[in-house]
Amino acid sequence: MRGVRKRIAVIGGGVAGLAAAVRLRDRTPAGTEIIVYEQSGALGGKLRTGELAGVPVERGAESFLFGAPDGGESAAVSLARRLGLDGSLVHPAARPAALAIGGRLAPIPAGTLVGVPGDLSTLDGVALPASDADRDTGRPLIAPGEDVSVGELVRSRYGDQVVERLVDPMLGGVYAGRADGLSLRVTMPQLARTAETEHTLRDAVRAAQTQSKRVPGRPVFAAVEGGMSRLVASAASASGARISLGLPVRELTRTRDGWRLTLGPVPAPQTDDVDAVILAVPAKPAARLLADGAPEAAQAVGALEYASVALVAMALPPGAGLPDLSGFLVPPGEGTLVKAATFVNRKWPHLAGPDGPVIVRASLGRAGEEARLQPSDRTLFAQAHAELSKLVGSALPEPSGFWIQRWGGGLPQYAPGHSGRVAAARAGLPPGLALAGAAFDGVGIPVCVASGERAADDVCEYLEEL
Predict the structure, then answer these.
(1) What number does CATH give the domain 106-131+139-211?
(2) pLDDT, tens digit, for every residue of 206-231?
(3) Which residue ranges does UniProt annotate as crossing the membrane (predicted)?
């Protein structure tokens, strides 16, 4: 790549695409042109900061993990430092969260791994485990490389209640999916690894917890003061990329020297030629763009399904009478549209004020419940307000304001075997084309950042060999 000016396209302006663009800027020679194509009118994907009653409230992801499983910093924290935002990282208060079960808010049992306990004695009546089901049969729980659903493994060892009252709400808070449909390897990779050697689920959970290195005194989560949109804007600026908004990439064609992008409306198409491409878009548009150049990869990628969710934020008057919690999760069996709630300025001390409004943010909808999200904003708000009142045990006052954020098809549902399908898709890609983002490597800001950076590294290595 030395001495020859290159052009690299990043298709998708979410956090994975922007992280890729920053890494490309850091690794490529001066003069390399990086173009980020985002078909919507704004960068950031599901990182979007809104405002309510003068308080910044996230319309998407509200935080990210501070640490990595190996004991280092997460990729999101490293990116924040690279962008000069390390002094703006804030952390949640040490307030507990709860589970809404049978008309009461019960403490979430301590010491679980995404809801899967390593010690059944800590459940304290929240869920009744199956009697003596987690026996040592003399062989590991799963074979090397095998993938099963989280629900299949946990039900077989701990029974239905542990899945439905603990694991489902924990996974639902992240993926909006059910444990029976979600891949163990994607959603709980540490547990998948230890399940290949341990003979009981209890021992596999404990081994996974032991291998996950926690640094004493280090916070678990972090956010950016002022909102996640600051991270987005800073990444776009640091990348030095040319940003193309509102112009969808409709086709991707292999050329003798690289790739041709066809953009814009069908009656008046535009083209752009580049040397390499990073696809950082959801599964369906990725499959469409791969259809000509890598049809087998397109088929594997396009199999991924998504769940739709909505967020409602409401500004309640001071002294609204909420329990002293950071929020709560709701198991699917409770039948509510609300699956989780956060008491925003209780959870985040930097947003608290003695006379300010009480901000509540609720997440609505799970996989398969798209029809329940179809009513108007006003109707969804009214249902959420009524359900929250019932869940906390007292009638909430009317808010001074609210908003609804809909994320149609927003959360990937990783069925068992997802990792193998993605590995096969990547192995079948033509040189100079890389995949990044939640469609491929998992949800969460650190995972998406790391995915974008790996894609950028792959592209750089390809270009260096030209």
Answers:
(1) 1.10.3110.10
(2) 999 999 877 788 899 999 999 999 99
(3) none
